[in-house]
UniProtKB/TrEMBL annotation:
One of its GO terms (molecular function) is ATP phosphoribosyltransferase activity. It comes from Sediminibacterium ginsengisoli. Feedback inhibited by histidine. Residues 49-203 form the ATP phosphoribosyltransferase catalytic domain. GO terms for cellular component: cytoplasm. This is ATP phosphoribosyltransferase.
């Protein structure tokens, strides 16, 4: 049986369940539990926090997972990205107060940046030869400049309305992201076969959507 980890609740949950349904896979029981089984495909579902999915897949607790690329790259676990899933699209961007005159990455030199993505922010700063102080916070990142905690933030953006409502403007995009299917790096041959069957269905659904 192939073990698939998906988000228990949150932005990726419904689209993940919908994709499985469109693949013709019926899931037996509700999502209040940690696990569920497909009735017509050798698939077992694990419902987890999205942040934990790369680690569970690396540790072989789950064989595969549906999770945002932003999480995959931030966690940098031993996973293989197999397929883009076409939902959960967003970008990871740096934003500053709207009234700031932003002239380029040099603006960030010596500044404080609040984010839940310290690894990705550090790598962006390094690539641009900028040294800044990274403040890792786990939520409500967009309020940090307003309360004097940071000069800039780096957070996920989709419509841009959260930034707008907090008086911020987007100045750099450091990653374009969407949900992807990841797999454990060393799946056994039987599991690889099951994954190929599932992947064939996912690719058919994606084609039909376009
Ligand atoms: O409980 P759990 O840890 O599983 O969930 P979570 O709260 O960490 O994640 P969740 O459900 O918020 O997001 C899951 C995934 O959805 C993310 O990792 C992204 O891959 C994807 N995604 C897509 C987004 C967004 N779009 C998004 N807009 N994740 C978060 N946001 C937030 C963003 O952080 C900001 O607060 O939405 C706000 C901005 O949205 P706009 O439309 O105002 O720009
Ligand atoms: Zn999370």
């Amino acid at each position: 049986m192939l073990k698939l980890a998906i988000q228990k609740s949150g932005r990726l949950h419904d689209d993940s369940m919908r994709l499985l349904k469109e693949c013709g896979i019926d899931i037996s029981n509700g999502v209040n539990k940690l696990k569920a089984e497909a009735t017509n495909f050798p698939l077992e579902l694990y419902f987890l926090r999205d942040d934990d999915i790369p680690q569970y897949v690396e540790d072989n607790v789950a064989d595969i997972g549906f999770v945002g690329e932003n999480v995959v790259f931030e966690k940098a676990k031993k996973n293989t990205i197999v397929e883009k899933l076409g939902f959960g699209k967003c970008r990871l961007s740096i934003a500053v107060a709207r009234n700031e005159e932003y002239t380029g990455t040099a603006f960030l030199q010596g500044k404080k940046i609040a984010t839940s993505y310290p690894v990705l922010v550090k790598s962006f700063l390094d690539k641009n030869g900028v040294e800044a102080e990274i403040h890792e916070i786990s939520g409500s990142v967009e309020i940090a400049p307003g309360i004097g905690l940071a000069d800039a933030i780096c957070d996920l953006v989709s419509s841009g309305s959260t930034l707008f409502m907090n008086g911020l403007k987007e100045v750099e995009t450091i990653l374009q992201s969407q949900a992807v299917l990841i797999r454990n790096n060393e799946l056994q041959p039987e599991k690889m076969k099951l994954l190929e069957r599932l992947l064939f269905r996912i690719q058919s659904v994606k084609k039909a959507r376009n």
